[in-house]
Amino acid sequence: MGIEVLDSRFLDYRFTTADVVADNTSAARFVVGAPVPVEGIDLRLVGVVFEKNGQVVATAAGAASLGHPAAAVAWLVRRLATDGEGLTAGQVVLSGGLTAAVPVGPGDVVTATIDRLGSLELGCR
């Protein structure tokens, strides 16, 4: 599991597909936790609680990522294959945000908790 840190140049994250490409998907940083086995877990149904400074600011389910988090990864693999490319060992692939973006600033602490998978915390400087 991971937390993606966005740095969009677009107010309120309103943009076109071309804007997203030009802005490098608003990606700035990400943090990932230790690998967690997911065998036997229906990732569509896992609940996500996102907190900012101890307050719940968003909730979601795994299905928020194209119906299943693996669907986004499968799309990427198929797309890369059309160019004769593929993923390699050690690459990190983010399957897409499950919640809407949450503004953060210096001093904020955010925590993502995913049912049966654990929690991940990020402090902002």
UniProtKB/TrEMBL annotation:
Keyword list, A-Z = Lyase
Cellular-component GO terms for this entry: cytoplasm
Q: Which domain of life is it from?
A: Bacteria
Pfam families tied to this protein: FAA_hydrolase
The cross-references to Gene3D superfamilies, in alphabetical order and at most eight, read: Fumarylacetoacetase-like, C-terminal domain
Record keywords: Lyase included? yes
Q: Known SUPFAM superfamilies for this protein?
A: FAH
Residue limits of the Fumarylacetoacetase-like C-terminal domain? 45-121
Q: Does the keyword Membrane apply?
A: no
Q: Name one GO molecular function term.
A: 2-oxopent-4-enoate hydratase activity
Q: What InterPro entries does UniProt report for this protein, alphabetically?
A: Fumarylacetoacetase-like_C, Fumarylacetoacetase_C_sf, Hydratase-Decarb/MhpD_sf
| Record's protein name | 2-oxo-3-hexenedioate decarboxylase
Organism of origin is Pseudonocardia oroxyli
Q: What is the lineage of its organism?
A: Bacteria, Bacillati, Actinomycetota, Actinomycetes, Pseudonocardiales
